[in-house]
Amino acid sequence: MADLEATHRAIMTCTACALHKARANAVPGEGSPNARVMFVGEGPGFNEDRQGRPFVGAAGQFLNELLESIGLRREDVYITNMVKCRPPNNRDPFPGEIAACSGYMDEQIEAIDPDIIVPLGRHALARWFPRETISKLRAKPKRFGHATVLPLYHPAAALHNGNLRSTIVDDFRKIGDLLKGIGVPPPAAADPQPPTSLLDQPQQPASAPDERPTPPTPQERSETQQLHLL
User: Fold this and answer.
1) Can you give the CATH number for the domain in which 34 is found?
2) In 10 A of CB 110, how many CB atoms?
3) Per-residue pLDDT, 167
4) Burial classification of residue 181, based on how many CB atoms lie within 10 Å of its CB (0-12 exposed, 13-18 middle, 19 or more buried)
5) What is the pLDDT of residues 161-202, one digit of tens each?
6) I need a labelling partner for 190 at 20 to 30 A (CA). Which of 12, 27, 88, 153 fits?
7) Which own/partner pairs from 124-128 qualify as long-range (CB within 8 Å, at least 24 positions apart)?
8) What's the number of domains the chain is made of?
9) Is the pLDDT of residue 155 over 70?
10) Which domain, by its residues, includes 112?
């Protein structure tokens, strides 16, 4: 069994990729080591880099509201990111940077052993479903090993597109349903495995890490508008 505290200590002194050169603080993650729900964002933003904590800016405040809406607090869940150091100028993390942190993510998942994993945004989604899009899989629970993976839009998407706020709030309720055993997908016939190399993954369109995801693509906005019309 992985040691979560040991993983955190290793992240704090990691020099596996160039991101460590400009960081103020690495951001390992925080929350309950026994959490049933694990959130995986994309990367630290300005505030996260300064404080060494994930989701502490405007997107983090919205995440807190979303958690409260389903009866949870930050202390009840575990929150981390695909990359543990802030990419310069708030750019998207490069595949090699995500790969450098992938072992830490493996250890965090093993140590926490969550029932539900929630990838926030398309870079996080790509760890589990590299050939899918967030607009296609959002709010659709999938079995991955013994856990349920529930991809959702990144909370910061609502900061750039107010029309997505109600969609994100509605999608978030799915977590509460899954915790109650409602809508849990059956085990897959053969458990999928994460890609062994990000070089095998297709190039993803630009999106943003914590505090800085780019606005949804026209296709995503169109799909969201269609949802509102239903």
Assistant:
1) 3.40.470.10
2) 13
3) 97
4) exposed
5) 999 999 999 999 999 999 999 878 877 544 445 544 443 444
6) 153
7) 124/40, 124/41, 124/42, 124/81, 124/82, 124/151, 125/151, 126/201, 126/204, 127/40, 127/82, 127/98, 127/102, 127/194, 127/195, 128/192, 128/194
8) 1
9) yes
10) 4-229
